[in-house]
Specification:
This protein is mostly helical. It contains 3 helices and 2 strands. It has a two-stranded antiparallel ribbon with strand order 1-2.
Length: 69
């Protein structure tokens, strides 16, 4: 599968992955993280630092991808 995702789609995919993991493990840490990652509005999470961290991680991944090409 070679698809490009928008920033929001990628964020939602990450959140869905964590939700699936949480359902299997019932990890309190993952549950807490999911609470922080709940979207209030597009581009705004329950914990604003979580959105900032997500953007930082996304930037790091994009830099790594650019260096490989």
């Amino acid at each position: 599968m070679d698809e490009n995702l928008t920033k929001i789609q990628a964020f939602n995919a990450m959140r869905k992955f964590l939700e699936m993991y949480y359902k299997r493990t019932l990890s309190d840490d993952v549950g807490s993280l999911l609470g922080d990652l709940q979207m209030i509005t597009e581009g705004e999470t329950a914990d604003p630092a979580a959105w900032h961290d997500w953007n930082h991680a996304l930037g790091e991944v994009l830099k790594e991808t650019q260096h490989k090409h």
